[in-house]
Amino acid sequence: MKTRLLTFILVLLSPFAYANNIATVSGAYAKETPPTSTTSAIFLTINNPVAEDRALLSAKTPIAEVTELHTHVMQDGVMKMRKLDKIDLPGKSDTELKPHGLHIMLFGIKEPLKEGMVIPLTLTFDTGRMLNLSVPVKKMMMH
Ligand SMILES: [Cu+2]
């Protein structure tokens, strides 16, 4: 019982213990949507500076009804999106969310995303830490 309480306290303290060694995000952007589309995606790179593995547990933005963590998998020769419970962030590495790979999926966008807009995004990590970001919308050239 005592051990369990101690573990609980350590879990509560862990976000502060890593205050100087926390995951950082760079290069975040959201994909501009055509006027008829209500789905989009956010891409970014997360740096985990500590040796321990971390994970991104969720992403939330008020501009979409549903926000999910996604990846792409090849299935019968076709690229398909799959929902993930978390995105693993290996220790001392960059994890890149990019087109045709890992991404933050937005469903039920309330108004079309246009280049020049900035949308709020909150990431929640397995340490319990939350990170608030301002994500610019960018037009994407698809080939
Ligand atoms: Cu997706």
From TrEMBL:
Q: Does the keyword Endoplasmic reticulum apply?
A: no
Signal peptide span: 1-19
Domain of life, per UniProt, equals Bacteria
Q: Which InterPro entries match?
A: LpqE-like, Lxx211020-like, PCuAC_sf
| Membrane-crossing residue ranges in chain numbering | none
Q: Can you tell me which residues the record assigns to a coiled coil?
A: none
Which Gene3D superfamilies does the entry mention? Answer: PCu(A)C copper chaperone (2.60.40.1890)
Q: Which UniProt keywords apply?
A: Signal
Protein name, per record: Copper chaperone PCu(A)C
Taxonomic source organism:
Vibrio breoganii
